[in-house]
Amino acid sequence: MAQTPQQRRANERFAKQEAAKRGKGPVITKPKQTTKTPISASWLVILAFVVCGGLLLELLKVVPEIWSIVASTLSRITG
Fold first, then answer.
1. What DSSP designation does 38 have?
2. Rounded Cα distance, 59 and 1, in Å
3. What are the extents of the domains in the chain?
4. Which of 3, 13, 29, 41 pairs as cysteine with 7 (C-beta 3.0–4.6 A)?
């Protein structure tokens, strides 16, 4: 059953009275939580060194091979 306009006005009046009785409560703010990483910064640096160091060593090993292939191809083309 739907509310009649008279019931709706009565409900609004009652809600206003109850809100006035309650008043404004203190505003509760939650303290900001700091997120802690599961791994420390020093371990991240060590992990990055291991991964990037291995990649750097592989590049140093591969680059001369690639350069020799390019140089031999150029010498065949020009020579």
1. S
2. 78
3. 40-79
4. 3
